[in-house]
Amino acid sequence: MHISKQELYQQIQDIKTKEQFQKEIDKLKKEYDGLFDDETSALLIVDELGRNKENTSKVNDLKPGIDSTIFGRVTKINQLRSFNRKNGSAGRVINLELTDETGSCGLALWDKDVELVKNKAIKKGTDIKIINGYVKDGFNGIEINVGRWSIIEIQPDTKPDLKIENQSLTKGIIGKLIEIEPTRAFFKDNGDFGFVTNIKLETKEDIKQITVWDKKVKEIQKIKKGTVLEINDIDTREKNGEKELHINSKGIIKKI
Q1: Fold adopted by 55-165
Q2: What is the 3-state secondary structure (H, E, C) of the chain?
Q3: Over 80: is that where the pLDDT of 167 sits?
Q4: Predicted local distance difference test score (pLDDT) of residue 1
Q5: Taking a C-beta distance cutoff of 8 angstroms, is the pair 238, 103 a contact?
Q6: Other CB atoms closer than 10 Å to residue 171's CB: what's the count?
């Protein structure tokens, strides 16, 4: 539903005059080279003030191909990766995990935004709000990307009360390896090759499917079907309302 500039102003009229509101709109439009119209600029201002609560998505509401505003807690930070783009320019990216009470998703910070992690402004346990982030279907499930037109709020003054349960499995999975799918190769955003496969473990309770990534793919391909394994440090992801199990570089695969 389209919200007019006047309707947006009514949400903050107790803290700003109309003149102040319009002045900030004009400043934001100039800052972003006229990309935003009055209504979009007004929405960003109201959202940044924490007054646009109905516009905030939950992790399990995210869909690829849309722009979303989301609030969550940083629960994992991967290593900084540097790369060269096809046009020869240098790039940097840090992948994080963002969690709310409905699940977890990936969060990609690019280029200058990686400094927020390097200078400890964002660390594990930091609450952040991403305004106008682009949602895509990443290699590890749903991922929100911070781009040129996104805004990052760190420890925002107005924030929901997060009741986050541990999204990772506290106990390892023990089961018999009954299936290994062929390995698939893909290009990562930085141009490198990545590898992924799916396996199935038969446990006492049921059969669990687990997605295996990169170095762990080589490790699992050396194991024969029928081998009993104990797998620890498994990541859980929420996608389309379903929990997915993933083994990345931190996962531990042990024969028993």
Answers
A1: OB fold (Dihydrolipoamide Acetyltransferase, E2P) (2.40.50)
A2: CCCCHHHHHHCCCCCCCHHHHHHHHHHHHHHCCCCCCHHHHHHHHHHHCCCCHHHEECHHHCCCCCEEEEEEEEEEECCCEEEECCCCCEEEEEEEEEEECCEEEEEEEEHHHHHHHHCCCCCCCCEEEEEEEEEEEECCEEEEEECCCCEEEECCCCCCCCCCCCCCCCCCEEEEEEEECCCEEEECCCCCEEEEEEEEEECCCCEEEEEEECHHHHHHHCCCCCCEEEEECCEEEEECCEEEEEECCCCEEEEC
A3: no
A4: 39
A5: yes
A6: 8
| Of residues 241, 235, 96, 103, the one with CA closest to residue 163 | 103
Each domain of the chain, given as residue ranges in start order, spans 1-51, 55-165, 173-255
Give the span between the Cα atoms of 122 and 48, in whole angstroms: 18
Q: Residue 61 in contact with residue 166, Cβ under 8 Å?
A: no
pLDDT cut 90: percent of the chain above it: 29
